[in-house]
Design goal:
Bound molecules: NADPH dihydro-nicotinamide-adenine-dinucleotide phosphate
CATH class of the largest domain: Alpha Beta
Distance between the termini: 34 Å
Order of helices and strands: EHEHEHEHHHEHEHEEEEHEH
CATH topology of the largest domain: Rossmann fold
Strand order of the largest sheet: 1-11-8-7-5-6
CATH architecture of the largest domain: 3-Layer(aba) Sandwich
Largest sheet: 6 strands, parallel
Number of strands: 11
Length: 294
């Protein structure tokens, strides 16, 4: 059996096109332009690449991008002051602080200073709490995109056994909450889980968010399962060049799974598309307009 490849790139492109349509409608019908402020501290090359691709996607969707680059040595008070200004700026409907932040800055304090209505990353304790008690909220982008991809294969996740490997605040925990909200039976695994392979073999949906290259082997996969690989790991490739691989041994797993996301081209593109969707939703809510029909 060869797994169906879940084409995150194409699914994200389709979502972005629908978002762009809604943005155009918002502008012409209501004179409102969604705007996202991205705060980048320091010059980490990977973060700079992410921020550039986010800004490009925003502009392509017809939104405004406000990039704020701060030096590596900036103090916490200056970052908090900038967030305060962005919270008060009506042209800014969403605020994203690129993580990680340098050690002199308390990330949780910065996240908590963002207006929850503008928290398009969904990391503010208010949005985390709303998600956990089942109220509408801004949902973290990578988990949101991961569940959307699973639902392209199986639209109803009610009653399925979902196994999540990873319990981070950014991916593992929120993805588990979203699966629970879809009525899946959810198991969350982490570095202390006993016999991880056996737990994974019970999964109808397996979501890997570990940060370890090709950690999940083919014989951990239940035949026919949906495998969503969140991992992004840079490893040495052929000819001294580096390449990106996921947390799942793709070649092995795709011989057993029913459907699988590739890396790259799976969850990654969905993260940005969901960021645009969150920015659009935040804009509508702040302008007292109905939520977009997406
Ligand atoms: P973290 O390092 O914050 O969390 C990793 C999780 O994996 C932890 O909960 C950890 O357990 C668990 N883990 C580590 N080793 C093992 C093990 N041997 N067995 C079982 N569980 C283990 O990572 P993130 O959640 O931030 O990211 C996970 C991956 O997703 C990374 O590759 C990251 O690059 C990628 N990512 C991709 C995104 C995208 O857009 N596609 C966005 C965000 C992240 P414990 O809690 O016990 O330490």
């Amino acid at each position: 059996m060869t797994a169906k490849i879940i084409d995150g790139k194409a699914i994200a492109a389709d979502l972005r096109a629908r978002i762009a349509g809604e943005v155009a409608r918002l502008k012409s019908a209501h004179g409102v332009t969604p705007g996202l402020a991205v705060v980048l501290v320091g010059a980490d090359p990977a973060s700079e690449v992410y921020v550039r691709s986010k800004s490009k996607a925003l502009v392509e969707a017809g939104m405004a991008a406000f990039d704020h680059k701060l030096p590596e040595t900036v103090g916490e008070a200056d970052v908090l002051a900038l967030i305060g200004k962005l919270n008060a700026d009506p042209a800014v409907s969403g605020i994203l602080v690129q993580l990680p932040l340098p050690s002199q800055i308390d990330s949780q304090k910065v996240i908590a200073s963002i207006d929850p209505d503008k928290d398009v990353d969904g990391f503010h304790p208010v949005n985390v709490g709303r998600l956990s008690i089942g109220l509408p909220s801004l949902v973290p982008c990578t988990p949101y995109g991961s569940v959307m991809l699973a639902k392209t294969v199986q639209p109803s996740l009610a009653g399925v056994n979902a196994v999540v490997i990873g319990r981070s605040n950014i991916v593992g925990k929120p993805v588990a909450q979203l699966l629970l909200a879809e009525n899946a039976t959810v198991t969350i695994c982490h570095s202390r889980t006993k016999d991880l392979a056996a737990v994974c073999r019970g999964a109808d949906i397996l979501i890997a968010a570990i940060g370890k290259p090709e950690f999940v082997r083919g014989d951990w996969i239940k035949p026919g399962a949906i495998v969503i690989d969140v991992g992004i790991n840079r490893v040495a490739g052929e000819g001294g060049k580096s390449k990106i691989v996921g947390d799942v041994a793709y070649a092995e797993a795709s011989r057993v799974a029913g459907a699988i996301t590739p890396v790259p081209g799976g969850v990654g593109p969905m993260t940005i598309a969901c960021l645009l969707l969150n920015t659009l939703r935040a804009t509508c809510a702040q302008s007292n307009l109905p939520a977009p029909a997406i």
